From TrEMBL:
<dbReference type="Pfam" id="PF02423">
    <property type="entry name" value="OCD_Mu_crystall"/>
</dbReference>
<dbReference type="InterPro" id="IPR036291">
    <property type="entry name" value="NAD(P)-bd_dom_sf"/>
</dbReference>
<dbReference type="InterPro" id="IPR003462">
    <property type="entry name" value="ODC_Mu_crystall"/>
</dbReference>
<dbReference type="InterPro" id="IPR023401">
    <property type="entry name" value="ODC_N"/>
</dbReference>
<protein>
    <submittedName>
        <fullName>Ornithine cyclodeaminase</fullName>
    </submittedName>
</protein>
Length: 353
C-alpha cells in the first residue's frame, strides 16, 4: 500500500508530547513566552474574527467550541467544564484544538489542550496583572486550589514577580496538594484556614473555584483599597464568585464584552454597565490602573484569541523537537478530482481462484 504523502500528514501533540515540551522549555519560561504571545495578539485585536464561544449547556456542565481567525491562520478549541467530574476521578476541564492555514483550509496542527489551557489561562491572568495590578505586588492569595492553582502561582511568580502565595480551599486536601507541588519552586507558600486569612497582605487575589453556581467567594468587606482581583472561576451563565457590591466599586477589565456579560462576574450587573476591554489598555488606547487605591478586576472567562495564540506558539515551538506524531488526516489523491479512484485503489487485492 502506498504510504501517505507529506501533504496528508498533520502533526499531533499528545498529552505526553505536551508534557515533554513543557519540560524541554521549562514551565516558567514557557508561561512567559505564552504571556508575550497572547499580549502580542491583544495588540492586534482588530485583526481577528470575534464571536462568543458556541456553548451547549446542561445542568451538570458545558461543552464549548471557541473559534477565531486572523486572516492567515484559523484556530478553534473544543473544551468542556463539568465540576462534578472530580467526584468520579475525572478532570473538570478537558480540551483539544486545531490550527489551520486559511489559504488552503488544511490543518497545520492538532493538539491536546487540557494542559495547554491551564498554561494559557495562567499566562493570560498574569499578563493582565502586568497591566492592572500594583507594580510592587509581591503577595497573591489563591482562593481555590484545584487543577489551575499551581499554574496561576508560577505564572504570577515568573511574569509579575510574586514571591508569596497564600492558599485556601474548602477542601484541605486540595491545599495540601498545592503546597506539595509548589515546594522548592522559589515561592513562599502559606496554607490558610479561610479566605479571609488568605487575603491578608495580598496585593493580588485570584479566585478559581469550580462549582457551577452563583457563589460569594469574596464579600465586599473582604476587598480593601488598591487590590487587583483576578477572577477566573466565573466563566459561564449562573456561575460567579464575587459579591455584586465589589463589582460596583471596581474598575472592570474584560476580554470580549458580548461573551463576558453572559458568562463572567458582570452577568450580575446591568447590560450597559461600563467595562474596559483589556486589549485597548495593552494597545495604549485607554489607561489601566489609574490610582494606587483603585480596586481593579480582570473578569477572566477565557477567549478564543488566547487559545489561538497558544496553538500558534506551540506550533512554532515544536520545530526541531520531534515531540509530535504525524497523523494521516488529509486525503491526498494524485488527481484532486479523483477521490473515488483513490478509495478504489486502496481496496484489498483478491487473489484469483
Amino acid at each position: 500500500m502506498t504510504p501517505p504523502s507529506r501533504q496528508a500528514l498533520v502533526p499531533f501533540v499528545s498529552v505526553d508530547h505536551m508534557m515533554q515540551l513543557v519540560h524541554h522549555v521549562g514551565i516558567e519560561p514557557l508561561l512567559v513566552e505564552l504571556a508575550d504571545a497572547i499580549e502580542a495578539d491583544f495588540r492586534r485585536w482588530p485583526d481577528f474574527d470575534k464571536t462568543p464561544r458556541v456553548a451547549s449547556h446542561s445542568d451538570i456542565g458545558v461543552i464549548e467550541l471557541m473559534p477565531t481567525s486572523d486572516g492567515q491562520h484559523y484556530g478553534f478549541k473544543y473544551v468542556n467544564g463539568h465540576p462534578g467530574n472530580m467526584r468520579q476521578g475525572l478532570q473538570t476541564v478537558t480540551a483539544f484544538g486545531v490550527l489551520a492555514d486559511v489559504a488552503t483550509g488544511y490543518p497545520l496542527l492538532l493538539s491536546e489542550m487540557t494542559i495547554l489551557t491551564a498554561l494559557r489561562t495562567a499566562a493570560t491572568s498574569a499578563m493582565a496583572a502586568r497591566w492592572l495590578a500594583p507594580h510592587d505586588s509581591r503577595v497573591m492569595a489563591m482562593i481555590g486550589n484545584g487543577a489551575q492553582a499551581e499554574f496561576q502561582a508560577l505564572a504570577f511568580k515568573a511574569i509579575c514577580g510574586i514571591a508569596e502565595v497564600r492558599l485556601y480551599d474548602i477542601d484541605p486536601a486540595a491545599t495540601a496538594k498545592c503546597v506539595a507541588n509548589l515546594a522548592g519552586r522559589g515561592l513562599r507558600v502559606v496554607p490558610c484556614a479561610s479566605a479571609e486569612e488568605a487575603i491578608l497582605g495580598a496585593q493580588i487575589v485570584t479566585t478559581c473555584t469550580a462549582d457551577k453556581q452563583y457563589a460569594t467567594i469574596l464579600s465586599d468587606n473582604m476587598v480593601g483599597a488598591g487590590v487587583h482581583l483576578n477572577a477566573v472561576g466565573g466563566d459561564c451563565p449562573g456561575k460567579t464568585e464575587l459579591h455584586r457590591d465589589i463589582l460596583l466599586r471596581a474598575g472592570i477589565f474584560v476580554e470580549y464584552p458580548p461573551q463576558t456579560r453572559v458568562e463572567g462576574e458582570i452577568q450580575q450587573l446591568d447590560p450597559d454597565h461600563a467595562v474596559t476591554e483589556l486589549w485597548q489598555v495593552i494597545a495604549g488606547h485607554v489607561p489601566g490602573r489609574t490610582r494606587a487605591d483603585q480596586v481593579t478586576l480582570f473578569d477572566s472567562v477565557g477567549f478564543a484569541i488566547e487559545d489561538f495564540s497558544a496553538l500558534r506558539h506551540i506550533h512554532k515551538r515544536l520545530q526541531g523537537t520531534g515531540l509530535f506524531l504525524d497523523l494521516d488526516m488529509i486525503a491526498d489523491p494524485d488527481d484532486p478530482r479523483d477521490l473515488f479512484g483513490m478509495l478504489c485503489r486502496a481496496a484489498p487485492r483478491q487473489d484469483a481462484a
